[in-house]
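for the writeup, i need someone to sanity check this before i put it in the appendix. the sequnce is what the collaborator sent (i think, or maybe the updated version? ugh). structure was predicted straight from it, no edits. if anything looks off just tell me and ill rerun, i have time this weekend
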Amino acid sequence: MHPKNRMEKAIALEAIADKAEELEKAGASNLDINAFVSGAREKLAEERPDPDKYAKAAVLANKWATQNA
């Protein structure tokens, strides 16, 4: 992953954490906070994919499929 993209992703993750803390302070339930964090991280992964992680996951999935065929 390019260093600029990595930095942008780190900033976005920090913003997600800050928003989760705000939700907690506002009295949101743990379920609501977890749903927000999961959704935000999923959206971030779609917007800023990590090709290295994708390639590793594809290799492992293929290996698992081969072993369990």
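The chain has a mean pLDDT of 92. The chain has one domain: 3-67.
thx in advance!!
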